[in-house]
Design goal:
Mean pLDDT: 91
Number of helices: 0
Low-confidence stretches: none
């Protein structure tokens, strides 16, 4: 992944990366662009509904990366 300004980690119930979808949440500023990094999901986020993790540049309103999540029951 490329580095960029103002990058944040979002989770969203929309598998197509909509960070404004109902239930989407800004988790944290991006802490690293390589290696292992863990982020805590804040209380109140409906974790079973999360379908994607998005790296998003708020300054330029650009999606840098998307990881779609598979549900164990599918």
């Amino acid at each position: 992944m490329r580095n960029g300004p103002d990058l944040f980690v979002y989770v969203t119930p929309d598998p197509e990366r909509d960070t404004d979808a109902p239930g989407a949440a800004n988790i944290s500023p991006l802490r690293a662009t390589s290696g292992d990094v863990s982020y805590d999901i804040p209380p109140g986020v409906d974790t079973p509904a999360i379908r994607a993790v998005v790296i998003y540049c708020r300054q330029f309103r650009v999606t840098f990366a998307v990881a779609k999540l598979a549900r164990p029951d599918q």
